[in-house]
Structures are given as C-alpha cells and as structure tokens.
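Hi everyone, sorry if this is the wrong subforum. Our group has a chain we'd like a structural model of before ordering constructs, and none of us has done structure prediction before. Sequence below.
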Amino acid sequence: MTFGPSPRHPKSSWLTRSIASAAAAALLAGSITALPAFAGQQSDKTAGVAEALTTDTNPADHPADRFIVKFDGNGDGTSERGRTYQNTVNSLGIPVTEVGVTVDGATVVEATEDLTAEQSDGVVAALESRGDVEYAEVDVFMQPTAIAPDDDLYDSQWNLFEAEAGMRVDSAWERSTGAGVTVAVIDTGITEHSDLAGNIIPGYDFITSPQIAGDNDGRDSDPTDEGDQCNSDPSSWHGTHVAGTIGAVANNSQGIAGVAYDSQIQPIRALGACGGYTSDVAAATLWAAGGSVPGLPLNPTPAKVINLSLGGAGTCGTTFQTAINYANSQNAVVITAAGNENTFAKYTTPANCNNVVVVGATGREGNKANYSNHGPEVDVSAPGGDASTGRSSAILSTLNSGAGPETESYGYLQGTSMATPHVAGAAALMLSVDPSLTPAQVEAQLKATSRPFPGVCYTGGCGTGLVDAAAAVKAVAPAVNPQPFSDVPEGMKFQREMSWMAASGISTGWTESDGARAYRPLTAVNRDAMAAFMYRMAGSPAFTPPTRSPFADVDTSQKFYLEMAWLASTGISTDWAGPNGTKTYRALTPVNRDAMAAFMYRMAGSPAFTPPTRSPFADVDTSQKFYLEMAWLASTGISTGWAGPNGTKTYHALTPVNRDAMAAFMYRFSEDY
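Answer:
Right subforum, don't worry. Here is the predicted structure as tokens:
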C-alpha cells in the first residue's frame, strides 16, 4: 500500500449545493491551500500489468477544503448554521457552501477556495470555539494505498504458500475456506471478473460527488468501478485486485485462489477519481456493518469483516471513529492498511483510529517492505509484495487491463493495500469456524499466533509478526475430538464438521467389529437418518410419537420411528401421498440435494426470502422444484456449490447427499440457527 503525492482535486460548482438561507452567502475567509493529506498516485509511465504507483514519503498535495461540522441541538437549524459560518467568515474570510450530511447528522461544508494547512486548522479551531458546535474536523480525502510494479505477469502466489514468507494459507484451508462469512471491500468498487463472479454479492456506491464517481449521479446500488483515474494517471482497478486476494474462486481451473475462497465479497464503492472523502468512507463502513444511512436501504447482508485498503493524512476524526465503533459493536472486525510512506503509521488515518487491525507489509524474503509504514499502531504484518527484490515478488490478483471496466485480467500490485486483504481473508477463515468471535478476539488471536519475521523489520514497529493463517484458524477452531471416527483421518475434507457431528451428539456412527467407530463419509444419507440428524440438532425435544404410524411404509417399531414421526409433526417433511389417503415416508431412500435444501429451509422456520430472478446455479432453473429453498441455502452460505467455468457455480440438485457433505451443511446451519 502506498500513499504518494496527491493530485489536486479540481473544483466544480455543481459539487456543492447552496444553503437556502443566509448560510448560502456565508464566507470562511482567507485563501486556503492544501493540507497534507493522503497518498496520491504518480505514474511511472512504464509498461506493466497496471500503471505503477510510486512511493513518496512527502506530504500529499490535495487541498483540505472540506469540513465536517456537528451542531448541537440548539444550532442545527439553517439560520443558526448560517450565523455560525458568518461569524467564522468575519475572522477568516473564505466562502463556503454546504454539500451534504454525514451518517450521524453532521454537516459537510466545502470552501470555495483551496486552503493552506494553517488556514484549514484555523477554520476547524474557529468552528469548534462556537458553543453550538459539538465538533469540527477536516473531511479528509482518501485514496487507494497500492503500488504496482512495472513487470510482466508471473504465475505465482508465493504470498499464500511459500514456506519462508507466505501466510500458510494452504494449511489453513484444511480447517476453513471462509464459508458463511461476508467480507465488505470498501474501495474503488469492482469490475466484472469471471474469477470473482461466483463469490460477489450486491453492494453499494457511496460516492456523493458525481465528479469523483464518474457515473453522473450520487449514491446508488451499483458499485461498479467506473475508474479512479487521476490527472494523467490511468485507473488502477484497485478494488478488483483487493477483492481477488480475499475471495477469488478456487478449484475452477482458472486464475488464482483467494485467501477465503468460499467467503462472500460485498463490493462497496467509496473511492473514485483521485480518491474519496472520509464522509463517504465512514458512511460506507457504517452501512457495511448493518447501520442505517439516511435515504438508503439497510444492508441485507451485513459484513463480519470490513477491508479498508485506503488512507489519508491526519488524525482519526470523530466521524470515522464513530463508524468504526459501530462496526465493532455489531461484531464486524475492521482491517486497515498502515500506509506506504515508510514513516510512522500514526500520521495516517484510519490506521491511527481505535478498534481497527492495522496491517504492515512484508516482501517475499520476509523483510519489512521498503514502503510500509511502521510504529506502535501496526498490529501485524502480511505479504504486501516488494518488487525491488524481483518482479515476481509483488502480489498477483484479479485486475482489469482496459482503460474502462471491460477487460478482465490478472496483474501484480504491491503495497499495504495488498497486505490488508490477506489479513481480512484470514479473519474470514477464523470467523467461519467460530462465528461468535468478537473483533477484539480476532485481533488478539491474529497477534498471538503470528510468527517471527523471517527477515528484518529494520525500522521496528512492524507488529507482533507475520500473520500465520493456519495457526490463527487452529487457535479458534472448536475444541472437538479431532478423530472420533476411524475412517475420518486428520486433514480429510469436512473432517472438522464430521468431528463436530460426533461431539454434538448428532451422529453416533457405526461400531465396527474391532470396536472402532466409523462415520462412512461417502455413504449417502437415507431419509430415516436425516430425520435422526435433524431431531438431535433440534436438541432432541420431548415428543411422544403416535401409537399408530403416520406413514403406511413405516412401522412403529422401526429404527428412528420417533424421529421420523417428529419430522412429520413439525412440517419439516411433507412426505408422499399414497392410496386411500395414506402417506409414505420412504425411509431407506437417499436424500437428494434439492430435498435437503427444503428440509433445511423448513428447519429454519421457512424464513421470508425472495429468490433471485437469475439462478445462482448454472444447473438449477428458476422454475425447478425447490428453487426457492436451494437459492436460500446459497444465500446463507450453508451451501457453496461447485465452482464451474467462467465464474459459474453448480448445485447438483438430484445428486444424493453424502454423509460428509451433510455434516458440512448441518455445521454451517448451526452457526446461524
């Protein structure tokens, strides 16, 4: 992640709206110029996958010309605000207009001229001296924090696998792939990419300025990256790269694998041309965690992990800290980049905010990356790449190779922006095995399980070490007998879930002739065993089965009769109609995956759900029986399906459910219901 000199953001009269009163003419005096802000992009003009962004330790050059002002209850009327601005203008002399409000009701004000750092500080001080002002702060302009090497593609994800300085993600996948966890990527938005499509869920565009957004409107439900080009620099497609590191689809014979490749990625656009403002990023953070933003619908799929690969210069303001605190209160962990100036992270926001996990960057040899910020604010480090040691030492991920968002590709970038999604992915892996973890617990385990730097942190202040995804996931995995079944060895797919089935008493398995217990993971689940599984998962409720069987083909003395009768009494099983008003259960018939979805949906109480008009699975038609239930199962993350070509997924609706997959379904179900 890098912050370079920030290009000046051009003024525009249509960026502001007049105050419909005396405040419209209010002036804040002086000639204000640029406050040292956040990182900008500087073209290297070299050929490569993406235009290079160079590291620059000098202050950025973007004008600090917007302010967030929170009035108390006695000063929030239009005329009262106008008098406050007028009193300030009498001493400073620069016109301002109101341009919007923040998520907590504060007013965003923009000066009509650029301000110096001293003048900007004067405006804040003058506003805060007013008795009717709770607080005032600069609306810091933020940018992506990534740099791109100028080298050709090299097909390698050393950052995930290599023993020396990789994050040991491959070993973590033995326990978790991130299923059931939503990760919000607050960034430049996202472009279409077949290696991401299967894991993308609806997000939002939070950019209020049409000029910055580049889509001729304000906030809307389309988070497509329209480009973040700045002056002569081309678009970076930064958000697409970050999203791929977290959640690119795996096992699809294509491209790369994300750290948490079964997680769901929610793209939220808050950065556009040259960057974006704190007020938009803070609103996006609050919305991502499920908070209410005036005028917008609630997020139907709140995130448990929020990735902020961005930053700006200055202190952490009240607006941003309030949004972060809300996210934490909703058990959403916020992961943010340390910055790329090779200076102290305390000068970068939101790295200097409270209740965030701050990530520094390392290179392929395990050394601190030469651009990475450092200091006590940094919690941990992760691979961010360092192309100074070779062109293959940056981070490969999904990208776009066009001038517009139309040509998918793969490319290398480097920066703390690239390190941050590695840690966000690791957090998703952890939360997938233990959804009850709080943000503080996630941070504590990431730090406690990090490993010593393979190389050197020559400046100090690189956090507790290099994140070890395998150790972090192992530390939070449920404490169950790792091998309760003789035919389920350590490391077998769904081993954790099958062990959980035994530990929770849902499955007792079979006793073999030698006394060992077997699970028979590749055996199909019959309908009688399904009834037993669901009855036990419900807590084995008190139930007296009828003395006369409700099923013509099930005897009252039959194994699992109580459980099958209970399943029918709850409406979870609807059975088959037979002759003369009888019903049959077909106890020894295997349960197909479509029927299993229906069982799970009813077990959850048949929640209100509108299935998408376009099926999430290439092999399931919207008119198919149990389509609603299968779509619901996918939306909850209980079923991840199989990865297909070009980012598609398949469900195999008429395939019987094997006992290993059933364990996975029930484990994920238990996390939410």
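For your construct planning: Residues 1-60, 147-154 have pLDDT under 50 and may be disordered. The CA atoms of residues 196 and 525 lie 32 Å apart.
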